[in-house]
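Quick one: structure tokens for this chain, please?
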Amino acid sequence: LMKETDLFAVFSTVALQSAIQKVKTIPVVFTYVANPFIAGAGKSETDHLPNVTGVYTMGPYKEMAELLAAQFPGFRRVGTLFCPSEPNSAWNKDTFSTEAAKHGIEVITVPASSSTELNDAVAALTADRIDAIVQIIDNLSSAAFPAIAQAAEKNRIPLFAFESAFVKEGAILSLSRDYQDAGRETAHKAALIMRGESAATIPISPPGSIRKVLSINNAAFFGISISDELLRTAVDENGREFSIRQLPSAE
């Protein structure tokens, strides 16, 4: 198979890790990987293995911190759950905490290593006088998001997420990487290599766009006002743009 292959396209962190171990000279282009640096693809977007490049779909933590600071300046303490045994989760938690701190936002973190610990972790988080829950991405919290949403609803704590589907489950707003763009940009990198460019010269990168999904009904439930600017730059749970009739009155 190796002798007959010009390029490997891999999908998922596990597939990338396997390719890194087994493929040393043939170009590897990856996508649907949250954190290629933890997976061993390199140290940075430009300092990576010479035969590996691709598009990663890490949560837009910097952009979420900027949005919270600009649109919800009253949020000074936000909370999130993380899984200590999951490297991506710990990295995501630290990344979001660092970005939020740049805007004077403190991130309260509570660990949960298994589904049996989750209810206690959610209870501890909601009891800690936080202004909002901003749930980072990891396998445990993704599977248990309905329980997180239920606790947020019970305690009237606004909920934000990094996966679009979670807006239908109770989040006010999500910021997520656009997977269609990720696929398109991955194909572009693969095409460059097939035309003769070296993978070593092609930076690893996230998708160029971020999907912003907003529920005005969920915002109303939590008593959160949504600005005209936010409505104009977001779509609703069904992917539709908000009409002018839905915008708040200027009076």
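DSSP finds ten helices and nine strands in the chain.
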